[in-house]
Amino acid sequence: MQIAIYSRKSKFTGKGESIENQISLCRRYIDAHYSGASVSVYEDEGFSGKNTDRPEFLAMMAAARRGELSAIVCYRLDRISRNIGDFAKLIEELSGLNTDFVSIKEQFDTASPLGRAMMYIASVFSQLERETIAERIRDNMMELAKTGRWLGGKTPLGYRSEAIDRLDDGRVRRAYRLAPVAEELELVRLIHRKFLQLHSLTQVETYLLQNGASTREGVPFSRYAIKRILQNPVYCCCDDEARRYFNRVGAKIYGDFDGGHGLMAYNKTRQRSNRSVAMRERRDWIVAPGSHEGVVSGKDFARIQDLLERNKAHGYPSTRSGRALLPGLLFCTCGQPMRAKLTGRMKENRAFIYLCQGKEKCKSCALPSPRGGELDEKVAALLDGILEDRAHLFARLLEGKAQLSGDSERSLLEKRLRDVERRLEGLVGSLGRLEEPAARRVLEEIERLERERLAAEERLARWTAPPIEETYKKLTSWRALFEELGLMEKRELLRRFVLRIVWDGQDGHLFLKPAREHSQ
């Protein structure tokens, strides 16, 4: 009989029940209730319990799925998960695998029906406590937001944060407000005026590039930076037109819209673990007058939002699609980045070129554009030749501590797992809209992807960094490996080696990263 002990501590500190104490208590329980059983220990230190994305936990579950574990023992329920949804799925899966689960602190054992019921109840209260604390913090922030204060974070272009002290019952209280930065605010006004004139983010971007305008960090404005400025209510005056617009979109409005100040908007984004920040629907926003100066009327702000919504369908396609390998790495000799642009008529496998953005936007470059497929192939072939220089490669591996292949392999495994999970989510969501024959085919594909997902999880859980000899063997057959990868994986692998590629009108010049950077 094989018993697993699982322990977790969210931070590397000396406080609370240490990993060692948890394991010791679990061993005593096993000695008393599973005499003679073999014990394997899985320890995650420095990981939160808000989800189950933890290396040792995943390794333990992979062992359970292989039928190697009779029971899993932990010190306390929240060591496994603080999320009731994850916990319920875990208990259901372990039940199907005939693997018992024991929490010694609460004295729950899934071997009995009462133990299972009490375990669910305790897990619900654990999550309720966590969510109540989080909700109390959010409520306090919301009440402060209704006052129009600046609550911190990166200040928007045109403003700086200014402290205001006041006396309250003999104590000094400090709050913050936005103070104007005149030169930056003039640029913000210009961006709003040009968009109302041109109705195009790309044309505004081109205008700013041609006139040498740059962000606070000194880099040219991108379309996305311009869009964020245009969408930010902080620049909108709190007048009647602004009130009507935010009422129309369902936002929560507080305070007196007197027309004399700008607006403050709160609760605009949703922070998501291990994912990019997501914008909330406008109906979730809290909008209140601030104490700073607004720069655009409510009427113009509403018109700009309507134009942006109307133009949504005409934006550039994401670089996540297509076939180009070099976006982000390829630059023209004039210094501007080069993007992939499709050529020819609308059909499958359309050819593409790499177009200098200086040539496209401000006509400042006259160099010819390279054919995309040919340049991609030349870069891959050149790297293949470099990596076939075995003595040179081996020296670079030693210098880089042999981490490149291992890091790349783990990164690719993680990307592949995320890709499979995304595809599964999309297929499951489409089932309800399909007729029976098509639904059957989708179910078969879901089963196949689920097997692939489990295999990827197991490989990831069992992954260890390879020794330098194995790394060397894999990299000497680099081209064969490269051809098996998907587009995003190829791009990621190129970025491991390549610092940048410069196009001079005839040839591409490849600049490699130093070996010590490969493992970063």
TrEMBL record:
GO terms for molecular function: DNA binding; DNA strand exchange activity. SMART domains: Resolvase. Pfam families: Recombinase, Resolvase, Zn_ribbon_recom. Residues 2-148 form the Resolvase/invertase-type recombinase catalytic domain. SUPFAM superfamilies: Resolvase-like (SSF53041). This is Recombinase family protein. InterPro entries: DNA_bind_recomb_sf (IPR038109), DNA_bind_recombinase_dom (IPR011109), Resolv_N (IPR006119), Resolvase-like_N_sf (IPR036162), SSR_resolvase (IPR050639), Zn_ribbon_recom_dom (IPR025827). Residues 156-314 form the Recombinase domain. Transmembrane segments: none annotated. It comes from Gehongia tenuis. Coiled coil: none annotated.
